[in-house]
Amino acid sequence: MREDGSARAAAYGQGRIFQSERDIQVTEHHHHGAPDTSGRATGPASVRVALSAPLRAALLDREELREELLAALDADGGVHVLHGFGGCGKTAVARWLFDQSASSRVALWVDASTESQLRSGMLAVAADRGASSEEVRAAQEGRRAAADLVWQRLDMSPEPWLLVLDNADDPRALRDGWLRGSPRGTVLVTSRQSVDPAWTGVGARMHRVDVLPAVEGAQLLHDLAPGDHQPEATMRLAQRLGFHPLALTLAGGFLSQQLLESWTVEQYLERLGEDPAALLDRGASLESGARERLSRTWQLSLDALAQRGLPEATAILQLLACWGHAPVPVALLAPSAMLAAGVPGLAGERIEAGLRGLLSASLVDLFEVPGGVGGRRVRCVTAHGLLLETIAAGVPEEQRAELHGAASALVNRAVLGGDVSTVRLVEPHLLALLENSATAGHVLDAARRVRDTYDVAGQWADSLPFAAALVEAASREGAAEGIVAVADSIALGKTIHMSGDFAGAEPVLKKALDAATALAEESPLLQADACLQLALCYAKGGRNAEAIRLLHRSGEIRHRILGPAHADTAEVLLTEVDSHYLMGNYGVSLRVAQQLMYLVPSLHGERSDVIAVTAPLITATAMRKAKESRSPESPWRTVVATSTADDTAHLDAQELDWNLVWERAQEALGAHISHFGPDHPQTASARYNLALTAWGYGDQETAISELRRAVGIRAAHLGVEHPWTIMVNADLALCLALRGDTEEAPALAEKAYAAALRILGPQHFITLRCAAARKVASS
């Protein structure tokens, strides 16, 4: 300031100076940077053209959504937001609506991916709708409210319009007045953000755009890559890609544009396992941007969350990527559990914010699934499989061990000591960790807990994946010959056998017996366990003489080490009873049963309660079998095994009296209901025995009722084609036929025989039983 009050100043570059000696207020809009001397406009080249890649194939599915959007156009009004995670086709739907509306109204398209592009695009819209160059320049220079100018012109538009605001993934820019409703047109926004004040502020109608349904997903893949592809393979590829539209488009693009080699769908499927994102990106065109490449499309959302102060979102996704693709109970992500497990990159107070960020960006979904105690629904989160695979591939190598350890600790906590209502929902994630060589060693105890729990419950189909994965984990580590690994192999053979695959169990148990025999000096009881399970397998396959030899071997070992009254020793006798009556040695079977019953009061050991409950049933069954063999009127006389001599001749009439057999069968069923519950598979065996006893006793109504109950239990727990379910169905058909049924009985018998013939072969005793029932039912 000079003494006379005037100011001295200097300007450099593009700066300007305003000086005054009086009270004159000057407002200046100062633009930084060099002027554009190229003569090109700084705004978009056009707002009348959709700034998106053209659709590669006809838009599939979304019929209801498209009809609703077309109806909104006709009604001339409203704001509609298409939201969903990256690559699900939001822009494709917007492009379709843009093309559909072009003939009936002005269609305007603005790229809203950044604030500057949104601003320049909206001012171009104002110019298109009649704003003068002076008005636009004033808005550009800040001398006029830009958003007000745009919406003034849109409201005054002589023609109806559709305005598409594409890729508004950061809606904060829209909150400054850029998003409004108008009676003259319809606004359609595409965004990955499902929740934002910008939407609620204008009362926007929200439309979720998700992956395609199965049929439409496979059809899209076929349309993009026409050729001699097997429909089954195309469907498998679509399923592998989770019916994700962008992934399907990229895969179809690759398969249709190969020049140097020609892959089949099957070959493409095989290569996907190596690096899905990298292979899929090869289907993008040279001009494709980040949004059209799978490796980057989701990272854009994570980068945006990080810029909003939510880097924890990435850490949560990395954790989810360690597990399976099934829903994850939110209890597994509780801050206390996450902190105890030491999940890298997560502070306790930020976990909630990170998860909410993922939800708002449509990277994960929150919903409830049944699975809690008493039918309670459990809140879970889930993410798309390809997203998780992409995230997993991007985890830095130095973080993997810590992340895997934390993921394993969380699952162990849930299975071994957590809320029982969520254990079932955690099991798919436990299995994923067990099948991963990097994490399997952390979760072995939890996997054995789940396997054994299902075994006790008689749910062997549910136990099987864990039993198999435990054996596979030991094999990967080169530890298949150790004591624990051999015990796991025996458990696998038992589970396969109990699941109904008698033939499939045999090689597993033979191999386990060989390994256990090699360890006999170190662990003799392991050999006894293998002998018992292989004997059970042989007995169910009709090889009873071999079963008896193995049972004697098992019994000798257990008797020597555990004593005669141990539950494990008594278990051998129980199995021997079963094998002898299947061979037709009814007298021997009953004598062994009496020996077993004599031991029941003094039984000890971990499973003594189970053996004490099962022993009366196996005894009652042996009595019934013996009675059937000596009863000419029994319909099962022709299908029971017959011994070379009548080894029941020494038994007096009282021991084979139907009244006594009926009494024992009732007692056995009552004990099973009390111990296992009314609908346990073991209880179904007691109901089955009672049913056949009731028929011999003369109570046909009870026989048929209990057979139906047994069929229902076995079908629910074991499956409709489990051999034991098939056998009960055959006996039900036989009883119905003997009662004069000519409709249900023949059909039931035919179905049972066909299933037994296919699964067990023509000479299996269950198949022969079904054949006998079929003969009676069809006569």
General description of the model:
There is one protein chain. The protein is mostly helical. Helix content is 58%, strand content 5%. It is built from 33 helices and 8 strands. The strands form 2 sheets. The protein has a 5-stranded parallel beta sheet, with helices on both faces. Strand 7 and strand 8 form a beta hairpin. Helix 23 packs antiparallel against helix 24.
Label the overall shape: elongated
Mean pLDDT: 85
| Strand segment count | 8
| Rg, Cα atoms, Å | 37 Å
Unreliable parts: 1-41
Largest sheet: 5 strands, parallel
Distance between the termini: 122 Å
The percentage helix is 55-70%
What structural class results from the helix and strand content? mainly alpha
Q: How much of the sequence is in beta strands?
A: 5-15%
The DSSP helix count reads 33
Q: Please list the strands of the largest sheet in the order they lie side by side.
A: 2-3-4-1-5
Descriptive keywords:
single chain, 779 residues, mainly alpha, 5-stranded parallel beta sheet, 3-stranded antiparallel beta sheet, 5% strand, disordered N terminus
